[in-house]
Amino acid sequence: MTPTVSASGLSLRYGRTPALDDVSVRLGEGVTGLIGPNGAGKTTLLRVLATAVRADRGAFTVLGHDPATTAGRQNVRRTLGYLPQAPGFHPDFTAFEFVDYVAILKEQTDRTARHREVRRVLEAVDLTGVRGKRIKKLSGGMRQRVALAAALVGDPGFLVLDEPTVGLDPEQRMRFRELIARAGEERTVLLSTHQTEDVAMLCHRVIVMAHGRVLFEGTPADLAARAAGHVWSSAERDPAAHAGWRTGTGSFRNVGDPPPGAALLEPTLEDGYLLTLDGTPAEVAAG
Ligand SMILES: Nc1ncnc2c1ncn2[C@@H]1O[C@H](COP(=O)(O)OP(=O)(O)OP(=O)(O)O)[C@@H](O)[C@H]1O
């Protein structure tokens, strides 16, 4: 992987809380998923990389630009599309007006070229038909697409998406995944999510964070493989399992250290994630 975004030793404290604790990551073209429990530091990492907040320590570069200098920071911002966790829409704006407003903030001063760009990004997220509608009248899924369109203005090389699939129904989520996959074809996308399914279906790399630290960085297959030999089925709940639940077939699926002779199951990414959070030694997969 040729890294397009590299961060090393990022640390940031809020009072006594280490939101980021010596975080080093490398991203390449395509979609990288960032998963971790509430308070893991995902949003903080995205905000640092989006130059919305500065780390106390550490450094990073985005497509060769170093935000440590004013000029470098400006270049990082020019190459960036950011979809924050709670996009601040003006509800009376139409979809077109909102994206146009973002395009103005992104220094697109030529009105004709800017409007062409606004139409392009709204088309890219399939919102052409409702571009004149007020945002308050759009569904949650459509609003998320307006926010994605705004992030895509100017064709940024680095797209930062903070939990973009939250609150979407399964069909909307599927459509949104399609759009993100398309967006990731020729650029670097970092996507924070609580859905291991988003990662399994969409991401070529995955980073697991907890307590401000990176616990795993590698491919989704590497993460699933961490649980090989640690997932088994049983007729009754196995008290030795770290986690276990009754499945639709009535048998239990257990994750942890199996008893001798257990009926081992093929691990999923979610199994690997659960075991990683459960204190498996921190590991960074090669590549
Ligand atoms: N502005 C802030 N002021 C004080 N503490 C903060 C601030 N932002 C984040 N924190 C704390 O930093 C830690 C990391 O928070 P962060 O929002 O980055 O986690 P997260 O992984 O994005 O969580 P979630 O999945 O719930 O969005 C948490 O303990 C949080 O309470």
Automatic annotation (TrEMBL):
List residues of the ABC transporter domain: 5-236
Q: Which SMART domains match?
A: AAA
Check the record and name the Gene3D superfamilies matching this protein.
P-loop containing nucleotide triphosphate hydrolases
Keyword list (alphabetical) reads:
ATP-binding, Nucleotide-binding, Transport
Which residues lie within the region annotated Disordered?
Answer: 238-258
List the Pfam families hit by this protein, alphabetically: ABC_tran
Q: Which GO terms describe its molecular function?
A: ATP binding; ATP hydrolysis activity
Q: Which SUPFAM superfamilies match?
A: P-loop containing nucleoside triphosphate hydrolases
- Family recorded in the similarity comment: Belongs to the ABC transporter superfamily.
PANTHER family listed in its UniProt record: ABC TRANSPORTER, ATP-BINDING PROTEIN (PTHR43335:SF2)
Name the UniProt record assigns to this protein? ATP-binding cassette domain-containing protein
Species: Streptomyces fagopyri
